[in-house]
Fold each of these.
Amino acid sequence: MVGGVLTSLGFVFSAFAQSLLHLYLGLGLLAGSGWALVFAPALGTLSRYFSRRRVLAVGLALTGNGASSLLLAPALQLLLDTFGWRGALLLLGAVTLHLTPCGALLRPLALPGDPAAPPRNPLAALGLGLFKRRAFSVFALGTALVGGGYFVPYVHLAPHALDRGLGGYGAALVVAVAAVGDAGARLVCGWLADQGWVPLPRLLTVFGALTGLGLLAVGLVPAVGSEDDWGGALLAASGAYGLSAGSYAPLVFGVLPGLVGIGGVVQATGLVMMLMSLGGLLGPPLSGFLRDETGDFTASFLVCGSFILSGSFIYMGLPRALPSCRPASPTATPPLETGELLRVPQVALLPPGGPHSTLDTTC
């Protein structure tokens, strides 16, 4: 709820900006802090609500990102043409204020995996002890690398379309096509992951690699002949990127309970978002720098796609990310809160009577 207020204030403050520093403080500090306070608690709480259909639930929640991109891409162009950028920021501030009543609807749940008392150690309170787990450390490193390229299309896909010769609404169409693919893939991949046919780490690795390849394809698309050209090649590449990126998004959060246990999923979600944001601090500025040096976004998308491919390669170190040589026995329907596909620990729960994890290693 506090995050909704901060995000709204960030947009409103930025609407009255008189310098670039004001935008850094408004959109960067205020709105960025607000989004951080919204995203991690919302997804972490959602993961505690579900067990067997957790990835589908996360995919449904994250579909809002794709749906908003689909609606806002043409709407923002219209707002910019009608009210200018200041008026558009004011309207966005009014929209994001609705995050506050959304936060009021989240209900905290007490689960058996919760610790009996809040941790007194600052490192434990921040969840930094999770890095002692090898699987989570591998996952964290891969996610940080993926974050270096994942956010670049959010910032530079429309300018890349303009550089390729499309008009303003043509560029908005490119973003909208990517958003449609993103939103649909989140639902389909969430359902697919919950079926248990393929281990979650393996799906994460595959769709992460496809996301990187999609960025490479976007960067290699040639320029169009005129602004009247709809840029079919760029639309196809953007749609392929949206499908792969949308499939990756629910997996990166759905795999967490199998790595850290349901009791640590909120802390782990915050850490994952921090790592992706650290990568995001590098990706878009590097993309802009390469654009200034080379004159277009080709090198930008190629380098950022390479970041995502490197992170997907790191994911191969996760348990069950690669096929095993041993024949797999049929998997029975998993009980509640032990339904993840990681081998050890399948789920780590903190018993109410003590701080040590009870590991379910029945896989």
Amino acid sequence: MAVPGASLVPILLGLGISLAAAHSPAGVECIVFNEEYMTCTWGSGQTLTANYSLYYWYENRSPVVECQQYLWEHGVRIGCRFEQSEIIQFKPFHVHVNASQDGRTLEIPSNCMELQNLVKPGAPVNLTIRNMSSNQLQLTWSSPYPNAHCLEHVVKYKSNKDTSWMKQEVKGDIFSFPSVDYEKYYTFYVRSKINNYCGSTQLWSEWSVPVFWGSNATSKGMAEEQLQWFWIHTVLIPIASCLLLLVLVVLLVRMERVWVIIMPRIPNPSKNFDDLFITHNGDFQEWVGVPKDVVESFKSNYSESICHVSELPYEPLQDNSTHPPGLPGPQEHGPYKNSYVGA
């Protein structure tokens, strides 16, 4: 809950215009975030259309200064950001906002603020649970707020069998849980605010990130399921992929062998005869290593006379009647008469 900086004037009497009624912001709210920076905003939840300007000063310390870092939304100024060097606590802080539109200006004054009462610390971090005894737990945490001694805390916790949250105020940064049930599953949150020694505020920090302790069947089941998925994704799937790849390689090798058996390759013997034609000049007997005496034994060692054959012309007989009996006639000899000469 933010503390409004001032009661703003809803209308400006005597202007005779609707500027104040239409464009006066609902209020100026300033919050110091963890003593790191501060924002002052106006018109929360309203649609602003006028051009706003913010001026501020510290009482008895500095002159009036205009905001150096405006916050914008939809092209309209909705606030101002102050850096850590511009924040001074325990000094009265004044701010006022001017709204201008159509050449007319409405000045919206504010009351004095005490910035130490507007501090919102950061959420606690590093929540840790320790077993102190058989049935006692200790919850510790740390805070990003620079002045830890100025903080008070609230611990919120609940088991999986509870229907409502339990809250416990804590002055320091240690919370002891006296009695725990090991059959339950507990959830813890912590938040902080400035104590009365360092300021007067109701601005609580955001709740911390939760921390858990105990036994929960559902959580165990989820953890086991996550572990199973981890093994499946990181172990089983890679191993199965490698085995599948190996099987595919083996199948490819076997398929190649089967294909060679079904469709054998035609051999090319040309390389085997290179030595026959290059080294032995085509001499097959020399190439195969036949002994010379065997080669000589197959050569002929004799000669034959040449026999000449010639054909003589035919001479017919003049009178068949005068042919001596007992000798064949011309028709019996045929159209030719051959003679042979032997050498």
Amino acid sequence: MMAEAGAGGPRLAELLAVGRRLWDELEASTEPSSGAPAVQDKVRQGLEALQRAAAMVEQLELFSENEELEEIPSADLKFLLLPALLGALTLKQVELSRRREHLENAREHFLRFLKLCRSYGLGSFQLPPGTSGEEQSRSPSAPRDSSQPDLVAMAMSRTAKIERYKQKKELENKLASMSSSVESGTADEDQIREFYILQIQKWIGTSLEEIESIDQELVILKSRDAARQAPAGPRGPSRPARALVKPFILTRDAAQARVFGAGYPGLPTMTVDDWYEQRRRQGIVSTPQRVPGASDEEMQKQQQETAEEEDDEEALRKARDWDDWKDTHPRGYGNRHNMG
């Protein structure tokens, strides 16, 4: 392996260095927008360099699941970072029409990096949920109600995030203290090996965080796409179309209709009986049902009694109004001529 890596080493190392340098420049960039042409040019150049380097690593077969971490030469450890760097640069692409594609590609890169690290025993971590081959921690015989939040999982996720944050800060401090000696060439092989392993462990935490963010964004994008593709069906039972009614003046009888018709020539007039008959023909109101077995004489008698009751009520109302007027107007009120 060492001979093969040495034969392709300079070119491979150069491609990785270019991709890593462009990534560092993008992270330190002060451009106000990630979609600026200068920023996207660096993203494109970095992706091209790292993709060529990844193809060379696969061709040289630098890494194998059948070997141990100790069997990898120290100079080759840095090439384990290629999938993670590819995922990070893929996320910096800003084409909105291909956002979902970029997210899925970046997730594949990060996941490939995590699986490779796990096969070599680099760090202790759990692969993201739903990953192929990952054991489910929950028993299938006791499914959880999806409508209720999994408080245990939420607490474990929060604890894991806090722990990863602490480890990230410790790793950054160690890497900062060792980077000068490694970059200057004064570090020995053990220091170089430790430096690259620390970098890999730092990117393990970054990859786990990025996959979690990607999964959340993918859920939103899939919901949005489903809402756009769903047919716009009826939201409720359709109501029958109502006939247009022209404005008119509703009067009590024909005489009143003639009076109001003269005052409002622009509007048609209609008596209550005419209006009722029109609504009956339209099916909006129904005709009073005849009582079964009732003769014409009984119907006339019933109508007469109803009219008498209405007359009695009218007479009673007038009598009450007259009594009220007499209470407020004493006898002789208003008679100014007969003063004696």
